[in-house]
């Protein structure tokens, strides 16, 4: 050791000891396996409120052709939930996985559009509403619970933040294949048939009996209804068809209208005339 030296020289490759009161230098990180990898970026999620089902309901409720979302009882419960500040998810069921959504939707459709077109539009609206959530949509199943004669769709609420309510193309147009099924309930079929029969035969809907049955895998329709007859005091129009002829002649256009509105083909239509009734205002006997 040299005279007056406070410390011996450090060997080559070894850092000198720190002076008194000096903090030791942090060790340098070596590139390679000792380096800490950067944290992976987290995917951004869209704002779908506190409840994805409530956001979906808002998006589907404004789809053209959707008269209501959910059963009447569930809609009443949904209004009660909204009144106390809770999300209204009536008619919507969402199953959340780690990377996927599965959605079940129940709607009441308007008779102003084909029911399956409306259901397909609801499928597309649900997919659009969840498109920015960071997860894929595995399937969207839509059940048409009922159909009613509503000229305009009844929107329950405006779309929430993070949802999209752009009108979807008609189901008859070419479009992407959608995962999930569309089901038209027997109640919806009866409502459609009753509405069309009332319009076709000029009879009040409440006086029409509808029976649908399975016939070798196809759907058979039986109608029980009175037919409008002009007053016996008025002279009969020349060449007027008999009640039997009128019942037979209207079956073909009725089958065509049912197929166009529901997508369901009828194997046959039987009409049983139960009596006569006065013609409705504006209809010909």
Overview of the molecule:
The structure is a single chain. The protein has 285 residues and is of the alpha/beta class. It has two domains: 133 residues, no CATH class; 81 residues, GMP Synthetase, Chain A, domain 3. The chain contains six helices and eight strands. The strands form two sheets. Strands 1, 2, 3, 4 and 5 form a five-stranded mixed β-sheet that branches. Strands 6-7-8 form a three-stranded mixed β-sheet. Helix 1 packs across helix 3 and helix 4 runs antiparallel to helix 6. The chain is elongated and about 120 Å long. The N and C termini lie far apart (129 Å). About 12% of the residues have low confidence.
Number of strands: 8
Query: Over the alpha carbons, how many angstroms does the gyration radius reach?
Result: 34 Å
Shape: elongated
Q: How many angstroms separate the termini?
A: 129 Å
The number of distinct structural domains comes to 2
Look at the helices and sheets and give the structural class.
Answer: alpha/beta
Q: Runs with pLDDT <50, length 5+? A: 40-49, 152-174
What summary fits the major beta sheet? 5 strands, mixed
Number of helices: 6
């Amino acid at each position: 050791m040299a005279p007056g030296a406070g410390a011996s020289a450090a060997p080559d490759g070894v850092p000198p000891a720190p002076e008194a009161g000096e903090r030791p230098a942090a060790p340098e990180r070596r590139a390679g396996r000792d380096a800490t990898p950067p944290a992976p970026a987290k995917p951004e999620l869209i704002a779908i409120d506190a409840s994805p089902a409530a956001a979906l309901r808002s998006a589907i409720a404004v789809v053209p052709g959707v008269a209501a979302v959910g059963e009447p009882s569930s809609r009443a419960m949904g209004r009660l939930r909204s009144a106390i500040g809770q999300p209204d998810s009536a008619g919507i069921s969402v199953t959340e996985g780690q990377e996927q959504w599965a959605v079940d939707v129940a709607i009441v459709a308007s008779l102003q559009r084909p029911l399956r077109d409306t259901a397909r539009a609801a499928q597309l609206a649900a997919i659009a509403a969840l498109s920015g959530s960071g997860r894929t949509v595995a399937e969207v199943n839509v059940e048409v619970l009922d159909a009613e004669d509503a000229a305009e769709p009844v929107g329950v609420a405006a779309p929430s933040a993070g949802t999209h309510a752009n009108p979807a193309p008609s189901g008859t147009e070419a479009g992407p294949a959608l995962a999930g099924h569309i089901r038209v309930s027997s109640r919806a079929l009866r409502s459609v048939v009753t509405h069309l029969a009332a319009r076709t035969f000029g009879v009040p809907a409440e006086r029409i009996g509808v029976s649908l049955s399975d016939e070798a895998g196809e759907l058979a329709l039986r109608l029980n209804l009175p037919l409008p007859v002009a007053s016996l005091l008025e002279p009969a129009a020349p060449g007027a068809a008999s009640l039997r002829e009128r019942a037979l002649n209207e079956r073909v256009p009725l089958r065509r209208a049912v197929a166009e509105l529901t997508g369901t083909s009828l194997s046959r239509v039987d009409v049983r005339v139960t009596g006569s009734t006065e013609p409705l205002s504006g209809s010909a006997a």
